[in-house]
Design brief:
By secondary structure, the chain is mostly helical. The protein is built from ten helices and two strands. It has a two-stranded parallel sheet with strand order 1-2. Helix 2 packs antiparallel against helix 4. It is elongated, with a radius of gyration of 28 Å.
């Protein structure tokens, strides 16, 4: 059993006063989350920060209405009840605690928050017998359902074409710095640096299984090394390159995949079949790297292809010559 689950209340067992108290605490939490988003975005996306500040103010308005309704029906003392006290009630994922959270992720989380809140108010309205309370909860359900439209209106007000374009460019730059650059460096390192040991082993032993084990060890080892190196050498605070964990993950995974691409064919028992497929995979990998450089790093395709393919061909030739010698 999940710890604490037995002590939670079922929503159907809550009194009308407790439902109102739950709504009040939920609105307070959501306003804080929106203000956290606004603070997180203020430096890089000031216009979007204004949008979330306005959404927080909307949540404050809802909370004030709920408090007034509670005061009219039940008095000044509001029971202490929160989301985590109710079994099966929606919970806010603590994504706002994550550093360097992307702009689009924040927007999608906000949309999910409004959807959950609207569903709660619809359910809460059905559970109360008081006409005024039911009307208030129904109005809040409609307000939360319209909040996505409200966010769009706020974006139209605060995010003109220039601001939106600049924020999109900033988000794209952050994506490049955090994911593409480390991942591309890892893919290049994994694809190129493992060519020599894998093909040297292949031609020296002509044993597919031994070649696969060497390739697996080289790929995994290189991935771990590149991942830790990327994460450790820059915390991203001054450089603005983003979370070291994300960069290390991108670099490590892509390094390992780059090597495994031409190691996996050696699971095929026939040596020449495995080698032919591995060489074809290498060809695809090198051209894929050139395409990524052109697509995301704006490197001219011919120059990227010349650098990557020539470098890979030299390393491959070195491996074959060493192994065949």
């Amino acid at each position: 059993m999940i710890p604490g689950l037995a002590n939670r209340r079922r929503f159907s067992d809550l009194s009308e006063q407790e439902v109102l108290a739950l709504a009040i605490s939920s609105e307070e939490d959501d306003a804080r989350i929106y203000r956290t988003y606004a603070e997180r975005l203020r430096a890089d996306y000031p216009a979007s920060a204004v949008v979330f500040e306005e959404m927080a103010k909307e949540e404050d308005t809802h909370r004030h209405s709920l408090i007034e309704r509670h005061r009219a029906r039940f008095g000044e003392v509001i029971p202490l009840i929160r989301r985590e006290h109710v079994a099966g009630f929606y919970a806010r994922r603590p994504v706002w605690l994550v550093e360097n959270l992307g702009l689009e992720r924040i927007r999608s989380e906000a949309e999910a928050m409004e959807h959950d809140a609207a569903a709660f108010y619809r359910r809460a309205a059905q559970s109360t017998q008081d006409a005024e309370t039911r009307k208030l909860l129904g109005d809040l359900a409609a307000a939360e359902a319209r909040h996505e439209i409200k966010a769009g209106e706020l974006s139209d007000t605060h995010l003109d074409e220039d601001a939106k374009g600049e924020e999109d460019r900033a988000a794209h730059r952050q994506f490049i710095l955090t994911w593409v650059q480390p991942g591309l460096a890892g893919l290049m390192d994994g694809s190129v640096s493992t060519l020599a040991p894998i093909f040297a082993t292949a031609f020296a032993t002509q044993d597919p299984w031994t070649t696969f084990l060497v390739g697996l060890a080289a790929s995994v080892g290189a991935g771990i090394s590149m991942g830790f190196t990327e994460a450790a050498h820059d915390d991203g605070v001054l450089s603005g390159r983003g979370s070291p964990f994300k960069r290390g993950l991108a670099s490590g995974v892509m390094t390992a995949l780059g090597g495994l691409g031409h190691a996996l064919p050696y699971l095929i028992p026939d040596f020449w079949t495995a080698t032919t497929i591995a060489i074809a995979v290498v060809f695809v990998e090198l051209w894929a790297i050139a395409w990524i450089q052109n697509r995301f790093m704006e490197t001219p395709f011919l120059r990227a292809a010349f650098q990557v393919v020539l470098g890979g061909a030299l390393v491959f030739a070195a491996g074959v010559l060493i192994g065949g010698g």
